[in-house]
From TrEMBL:
Keywords: NAD. It comes from Luteolibacter flavescens. This is SDR family NAD(P)-dependent oxidoreductase. Residues 3-242 form the NAD-dependent epimerase/dehydratase domain. It holds the Pfam family Epimerase.
Amino acid sequence: MNILLTGTAGFIGARTAELLLDDGHQVVGVDNLNDYYDLRVKEHRLDRLVSRPNFRFVHTDLEDRDAVHALFKGASHDAVVNLAARAGVRASIEDPHAYVATNASGTLNLLESMVCNGVGKLVIASTSSLYAGQPMPFDESAVVTRPISPYAASKLAAESLCYVWHHLHGLDVTILRYFTVYGPGGRPDMAPFRFCEWIRRGEPITLHGDGNQTRDFTYIDDIARGTVAALRPVGYEIINLGGGNDPISINEMIRELGGHFGRVPVVNHAPAVSADMQDTSANISKAARLLDWKPRIPWQDGFRMTAAWHAEQGAWLDDIVM
């Protein structure tokens, strides 16, 4: 297949691109290379892709309607995988306009271009943050109408737009609600990356809240596999990709990572953030049924491999701003 993959320099986008190329697909990778976090991390991921056969990179922004239309002109995309997003709950409180512009308006630009150019399949990343206030484990049948952060609100808007375009134009859409993705080469704004670096550098960890909050951590390779599997036709479906209802506390994660570095982490507590969810846990039975997918990497192995990557890459990670 010929795949248009947005957010290709991102954590999930880069690994998904690698798997698509491994499977023999052609990938046009799109990213605006914004400075939400240290660009050297994005460049590190992109360097692994640009020399590969069947990969072409386009530096452009989904918020630019004309630029998005140009991505389709003269092309023969079989599907779009939209992983471009402004991510991060706390940052969305500081700059909500950027989140709506990328996550909602950027999605709308893609939907319009797909219809105009006869591209019928969309896979799009969404978030477990939409489940705030719902009983666990979180199930896709939950009615989510009260997001508690601008990030979640912008993702709910994108999901709604996708349903409208499915209803009006017959687009086949798979919406993937990801649960706390982590692994080698992660995002510097996320706890697993930051905690690994603080422990490796011998610096204290800043932890918001008491650390008893839990997360359904999902290893990057499992997420990328599920994203590729989501290219199959489904009509319109929302599907959880999570760790398999095996959540652990943030305190337990810190202890686990400290053990891999041979250190007892020093933790400085900061006030909890009201837009953060207390706990997450995914019902992933729908992913098993529709995508033949389940996670393969338990969190114990995942954190070991994540810590090992940080130890191996320390020479250039020392300068990364978090």
